[in-house]
Specification:
single chain, 158 residues, alpha+beta, six-stranded antiparallel β-sheet, 3 helices, 25% helix, 34% strand
Length: 158
């Protein structure tokens, strides 16, 4: 079985707790956004690289599923799988786990490499592509998680 890559280990801060007494929906997205930042560092798109190469990554789309509540000071981890990739894009899947391996949320994301000089999509530089391939070889699930490719809609009974 292919293992996910653990990107973040932290605790839910007070600032992320909403009027319902649990983690606010926007802060699940914040945690996943930090996961994208960690992924960028892993593949070599660091702050220094972005400055020197005028190259970055943008999130094109994301889909979050909220599965369970997270409470104040609860320990959490953000895990990564690489679902697919090509010369310019990576299809990523993140999971947020709470205490006792509670699967609290997922985020499916499509990210794209961007030439910051032109503001246009651009292929991943060779060293970045090599790092993506290495991570994908270790962290691509044999079966896609059930949340991948989901469509939002109200199912009507016939």
């Amino acid at each position: 079985m292919v293992q996910s890559k653990v990107l973040i280990k932290d605790k839910v801060p007070q600032a992320w707790i909403d009027y319902n007494g649990h983690m606010n929906d926007a802060d699940y997205v914040r945690a996943f956004s930090s996961g994208v930042d960690q992924f960028m560092d892993l593949i070599g798109i660091t702050a220094d690289f972005r400055k020197k190469q005028n190259y970055t990554m943008f999130t094109l789309e994301n889909h979050v599923c909220y599965l369970d509540e997270m409470k104040l000071d609860e320990a959490f981890e953000v895990h990564l799988y690489v679902i697919d990739y090509d010369a310019k894009r990576a299809h990523l899947f993140f999971e947020l786990y709470g205490e006792n391996q509670k699967r609290a949320a997922t985020s499916e994301q499509m990210v794209m490499g961007i030439d910051q000089t032109s503001g246009r999509p651009a292929p991943f530089p060779d060293e970045v592509m090599s790092n993506i391939e290495e991570i994908a070889n270790k962290h691509t699930p044999t079966e896609k998680p059930s949340e991948v490719g989901r469509i939002i809609g109200i199912r009507r009974k016939a």
